[in-house]
Amino acid sequence: MSMREKLIAAAVTAVLMLMSAQIVCAQSDAVSPSPATDTAARLAKLEQQTADAKSSADNAWMLTSAALVLMMTGPGLALFYSGLVRKKNVLSTMMQSFALMAVITVLWGIFGYSLCFGSGNSFIGGLHNLFLNGVGAAPDPDYSTTLPAQTFMVYQLMFAIITPGLIAGAFAERMKFSAMLLFMVLWSIIVYDPMAHMVWGKGGLLNASLGGRFPTLDFAGGTVVHVTSGVSALVCAIYLGKRLGYPKQPMFPHSVVLSFIGACLLWVGWFGFNAGSALGAGSLATSAFVATHFAAASAAIGWAAAEWIRNGKPSVLGGISGSVAGLVAITPAAGFVKPMPALFIGLIAGVFCYLMVAKVKAKFGYDDSLDAFGVHGAGGTLGALLTGVFAVSAVNPIFKNAQGATLASGLLEGNAGQLLNQCIGVAIAWVIAIVGTLVILKVVDLTIGLRVSEEEEVQGLDLSQHGEEGYYWETPA
Amino acid sequence: MTKIEAVIQNSKLDAVKTALQEIGVEGMTVIEVRGHGRQKGHTEVYRGREYSVDLIPKTKIEMVLPDALVEKAEQAILNAARTGKIGDGKIFRSRIDEAIRIRNDERGEGAL
Questions:
Q1: Which B residues in the span 44-63 are in contact with A, Cβ-Cβ below 8 Å?
Q2: Which residue from A54, A96, A140, B104 has the least number of CB within 10 angstroms?
Q3: Residue A4 maps to a domain
Q4: Which residues of B touch A321 (CB under 8 A)?
């Protein structure tokens, strides 16, 4: 140490000693003695640590949930759907799900998140969060006080991915890949983003927790995800027309095995979808988890039993389709209902969706190839309405009066008006889905065309759209 | 030389194979096939939609035998593959003009 450094060190030490002496004087002058301030400081520190710990706990569950919801699209939905198509279309069906994982992610980062969750008007979010501007580690208190805004953003992204993926079930085996991409991009902007904003975004028309005009209870996306995608699927199926040869030519699911694995992955992933929608790792997440599981189970029984009675045999495809129908129906209700109503909602959904798929579809003759409408549109609508019946404040005290006292949630609790609000939410979802989808289909049809040529359809979309085959057994060793 | 083609129930392949080996049949070709005879197909129901399946999976065994073995082989197949129900299958017999072993150009029954 040089002389100069020694001098500086001595000076710094002297200044520090003087300062601490002043503090000691100040403290001894004060009325309360030093332990109190000490306690206050320790309390503040403790509070900070508690908040950090809660934030970490919530964050851990929400990141896990986000991963689970992505797993629902790939491989869950991809397997579920691709098992139901003919073998020549297995890859193209998987690709429809997978492409969304890539494309919607990019859109979400650039503007999707902002349009859904940025503050805007009643119908659509603003552009404040373009390019994820302002979406960082700090929480957005409108959505969660414990989660980093980025966690919330990436969790919601997974919903934006799977929702258009569900529609693909309606136009399986006949839509051009390019047309499907353009359709999905436009659909995400015109239908999904506004609907998600209305129900979940700040200032949204239907937002139940942030003071919407018509508060609609939709815990995890019964209207936002399932009604919009299911109804759009019906519009697609009717607009595109039937597959060549439908319904005369038999079109077997080429592998119920793939569908089975996919459906079970969906069931597991749905815990992230519904319990994750609690946006925390507290008891509400548990409640939603339990309701989700119970509904899936009873719906599987409902569908399979209906088949057993009507056809004499309970099929595997029926069982798994039933569980998905139950999961769809419980989605809006998951964080609002107790386990026994969840069981009931599931059972009703299983039987109802079976009838939609087996009876109603056959009666009207549209080719909703993989029953996206019969399961998601019908099940989602049913679930959204039943949420208004069975929601209780004991599970989730979402409505409060000006004094902060908890108000009744659903019809059975005495809040009949909620059923009306649910109807309004569902109606808006139906209208936006029908109008938006029709416009988009027309635009895509007039620009690049929707359907593949007859020749390509016969050849299969795997070869004609992607130049690959899913199964090629003849490879020499 | 005689060719025997037998279309049998899938579940009877092992029994037929064993029976043929026991009487000294040394080679055979087994093919998974679909087809129908008098046996009606069945219906499969997927999400409430019925599909009638009239081509049923079967197993076809082909073998070319020295004439001395033909009767015994046919009897072995009949015994092993019969359940007594419609759908047990059929045996077809036809003459074979020539057999050639690719490895050494051996011809006739010696090539079998």
A1: 44-49, 51-53
A2: B104
A3: no
A4: 47
pLDDT in tens, A130-175: 999 999 999 999 999 999 999 999 999 999 999 999 999 998 899 9
Q: Using an 8 Å Cβ cutoff, are A437 and A163 in contact?
A: no
> For chain B, what is the HEC assignment?
CEEEEEEECHHHHHHHHHHHHHCCCCCCEEEEEEECCCCCCEEEEECCEEEEECCEEEEEEEEEECHHHHHHHHHHHHHHHCCCCCCCEEEEEEECCCCECCCCCCEHHHHC
- Cβ of B48 within 8 Å of Cβ of A317? The answer is no
Question: Do A332 and A195 touch, CB atoms closer than 8 A?
Answer: no
In order of their start, the domains of chain B are: 2-111 (3.30.70.120)
Asked if A371 lies within 8 A of B48 by C-beta distance, the reply is no
Give the C-alpha separation, A115 to A104, whole Å.
13
What is the CATH number for A374? 1.10.3430.10
Closest CA to A288 of A342, A328, A324, A325: A342
Please count the structural domains in chain A: 1
Kindly indicate whether the ipTM for this predicted assembly is greater than 0.85, answering yes or no: no
**How many A×B Cβ pairs under 8 Å?**
31
Look at residue A61 and tell me if it is in a domain: no
Distance to chain A for B54, nearest Cα, Å: 11
In a domain, A17, yes or no: no
Q: Chain A residues within 8 A (CB-CB) of chain B? A: 247, 250, 252-253, 307, 310-311, 313, 315, 317-318, 321, 354, 357-359, 361-362, 371
**Average pLDDT over all residues of chain A:** 92
The per-residue pLDDT for A420 is 95
B50 neighbors B98 (Cβ within 8 angstroms) = no
Across the interface, which of A252, A253, A362 has its CB nearest the CB of B48?
A: A362
Please confirm whether the linkage preceding A247 is cis (ω < 30° from 0).
yes
Q: What band does B89 get if pLDDT is binned at 50, 70 and 90?
A: very high
Shortest distance, CA A374 to any CA of chain B (angstroms): 11
Q: Which token pair is A29?
A: 């002058």
Neighboring chain B residues of A361 at a CB cutoff of 8 Å: 48
Is B32 within 8 Å of chain A by CB? no
pLDDT for A30-46, tens place per residue?
A: 555 577 889 999 999 99
Considering only CB atoms, which chain B residues are within 8 Å of A358? 47-49
Using the Cβ of B103 and the Cβ atoms of chain A, whether some distance falls under 8 Å is answered with no
Q: Which structural domain range is residue A122 located in?
A: 76-466
At a CB cut-off of 8 Å and minimum separation 6, what does A475 contact?
A: none
Contact A128, A119 (CB under 8 A): yes
Tell me the chain B residues in contact with residue A307 when contact means C-beta distances shorter than 8 Å.
45, 48
Query: Are the C-beta atoms of A263 and A323 separated by less than 8 Å?
Result: yes
